[in-house]
Structures are given as structure tokens and as C-alpha cells.
Amino acid sequence: MASVSKPPIASVMAMTTTSTRPGLTPAATEFVTERHLATLTTLRANGTPHVVAVGFTWDPDAGVVRVIADGASVKVRNARRSGYAAVSQVDGARWITLEGKATVLDDPASVAEAEERYAGRYRQPRENPTRVVIAITVEKVLSSSGFKPTAS
Fold first, then answer.
1. Which of 17, 23, 89, 140 has its CA 20 to 30 A from that of 56?
2. pTM of the entire structure?
3. Are 39 and 53 in contact (CB under 8 A)?
4. Which residues in 27-56 are b (16+ Cβ under 10 Å) and which e?
5. What is the pLDDT of residues 102-122, one digit of tens each?
């Protein structure tokens, strides 16, 4: 078995930035509009993470991530119960995690808006009469250093 070289912890720390502002830099905003999938992490009832691949959209005006899902899915049950979630998008050395309070929306207007946003980033979603939206109000942003806000 070949040994894998790991970077020193100082260089790993230098690649990471944390922000408590929901706003994203222009580079980060562009990244979250590129066509990539992400992972959604919610917490199971026993506290362990439930991680699944999802498509998501970012609303910069509201500071909200939207994930469309079937109302009976585990991720929706977890979001309803715990009220917290995170999405992480990775492309090579570029990555971003957006986390915060999660709310499940099932009213037709919210679902229609989320479907429209999803179609704009990915493709028109298939018909699903039990679709809901997991809306994450972003409270914390973690990212690779290329998305770090510059000091003003």
C-alpha cells in the first residue's frame, strides 16, 4: 500500500476561510452558479450525519440556499426535525460550504420558485406532486482560500 503524503496542518489551515456573513465574493458567487452537484448534510435523529448528493441554488439577495426534494425523503425529515443543514460544493481545489438554519417549505409559490431557480442552473426538474423545498438561511460560509473576501 502506497503512502499518501499529507500537507502540514498550517498549509491546510491557510487554504480555508470562514465567514459569518451570508454574502459571497464575486468568485464564490460565480462558483455556486456553475453546473456542479453538491452534498447536503442533515442530522439523523441519533445525531449522525446524513450526506446525499443534491443540486442547489443560491439566492444572493436573500442569503438562502434552496434544495428541492421529495417531501417523504430522509433529508426532508431530518431538516424538519433538526432545523439545520449544510451544502458543500467541490471542484478540484475549489470548495465552499454554506450552512445555517433549515426550513422546509411546501407552499406552491415557494416550490415553484425553487423549481424555476433549479431549472436555470441545471435542467427542468421532473414532475413531482410531493416536492418541497429545503431553504437554508446561510449563517456560516467556509471555503477554499480563492473565495476569501479581501480586506477593505
1. 17
2. 0.84
3. yes
4. ebeebbeeeeebbbbbbeeeeeebeeebbb
5. 999 999 999 999 999 999 999
